[in-house]
Amino acid sequence: MDFAFSDEENELRASIQTFIREHLTDEIRRDLQETVVGQGYSEASLKFLGMIRDNGWSAVSWPTRYGGQGRSRIAQFIVEEEFHRAAGLGVGGGGTGAPAILASGSQAQKDAFIPGSIRMEIIFCQGYSEPHCGTDLAGIRCRASRVGDKFVINGQKIYTTNAQNSTHIFLMVRTDPQSRRHSGLSVLLVPMNLAGITVRPLWTIQHEPRAPSVTTYAEPRTNEVFFDNVEVPVDALLGEENDGWRVAQRGLNLDRVGARRYLISTMRDEDIVNYLKSGDELVEQKRNDPRVRDKVAELWAEAQVCRLMTMRSLSIEENGGNFVYEGSAEKVFAPEHGVRATEAISQILGPQAQLLNGSPEAPNEGVFAHNLLGAFQSTVNHGSVQVMRDQVARKGLGMPRQKS
Q: In CATH terms, is domain 257-396 a member of 1.10.287.950?
């Protein structure tokens, strides 16, 4: 098995790195961070994002008929990796919601949403979690009642990242009021500008002081979203009515695979290696400590396992294989590695690991302390590791469902 990138793929990486060096200024980095609190893009940032789009990097592996480049998922991985490392910027995947539309949408929905997502004119946020059901989405209560040729939506979503900047929400609702658990759920593609939708900010622990952009879950803001008699046409339904669980699961599995998910958990290893390579006498002492070197090497090896699991999933998808449990397996190993790495790094650094951004003595702008604040979140976001273990057991190993 050859794990090396091809010459063409290496050329793609080099061209992106050159572009980033020439065009991604500190001003644009700061501005991109400000958008997450609802400040909007500056003219310089819009120009930068436009150049990304014009280079075809916003949808490298998407079909050419919708405006993508039609290249491999490995090419998309490279694009995602470089932009996430540089600025925590999500580029290359077409946006949350788009993978599920491509997999389960009607032709009309694909024509309406995919080109706009590629051009960054349509931005989806994900409407899954609710106050009483975060990791257990089968308990969803937000309902959509069928009235003639419309759905009428009432309920609430919580922890809806980027709702303040999104044009649409990928919304999971209960369409059969008599149903329980996974049955009776549907997915609706809902514009965020409709009457009856209210977005209210929830400020996170990373808000003040502000976390560096490459921190594990650095978002300073998430949101509550309320729906009060919101009306959408029936053609907003993605897939079949009451089959939303299957539609969403397929979309989640596709969204779990890629460079960003892998880097959320493994950039911590790179942070400590880069820090130990340079610095004052105290850093040199830590670097030469055999216990520190042993632990860092162990973490680095685990990070390579995370990378190879991601590459396996990409290969399965690229070759039309049956993508069953692999995304769930990644969602267990990588976040738990991230927690182990963050805790070990905190022990290596000692008291300095507690200094947040803005502290005069904080190493690397406080990224190590902010990583500690966000590390455990990665074991819950996008499906808890407990739920993912159950997915691996049932779908990967053929084990029966656990009895309550």
A: no
